[in-house]
Amino acid sequence: MFPERLTFSIAHWVNAWVDALVTQHGMAFRRFSDSLLWAVVQLEGLLRATPWWLVLLVVAALAWHATRRVLPALLIVGLLFLVGVMGLWDKLMQTLALMLVATAIAVVIGIPLGVLAGRSDRVRTMLLPLLDVMQTLPSFVYLIPVLMLFGLGKVPAIFATVIYAVPPLIRLTDLGIRQVDREVMEAANAFGASRWQQLFGVQLPLALPSIMAGLNQTIMMALSMVVVASMIGARGLGEEVLVGIQTLNVGKGLEAGLAIVILAVAIDRITQAYGRPERVVDP
Known about the structure:
mainly alpha; MetI-like fold; globular; transmembrane; membrane
């Protein structure tokens, strides 16, 4: 047995910090939570009100524009049509709305931080340990303070998803910026380009394949959180999986699991196609 006199706990300090945060800034968090919830509900309502055939047409157009091939576009549309046939279309739209909002927040946070890390060794050194913790810490650990700040529902699910899914986008954006050829940057500098012109005119376009790969990984990791999100009040396909687990209904859980896989495959194929290097250099 480990000696009692050598043990200590940080639980009291963490609890005191979270309690102080809730007491002092609880109303601000609540207002932010209400605004975010309004945005999610509006997007979810729009997706659920849109005719299914129109959603499939939009997906088909996106898939064809990304891949420039008819067969993959038809395959993606056919898989999504299968989700509707299984009676899970409404749940699919709920999950899609939650994932789109979480991904948008991850992009707003992840790409600027990745650019900063790619252009500054000091920022990168500070971020790497934090990203390691975010990727390895079990999601249920940071769900506790998130639930205290925002309560049950879609908002804490979004924040838990963002915390879990944003690290790949930061890392791959950083990698893409650092992999830009030094000679290209020297040429841009020789032509008198400012730092902003170098960033938006040279670095970001050349780093786009890596950034798109990071976005792809972020979306995939966000989808992997839908079941965890359902445990704290978010609805959608994850809720169906959870109900299947609770009632030992294998068929119900399998149908919802297949629907999540289909959504992941559809988004994966589209984002991967948009991130191909040969596509980026197309005029």
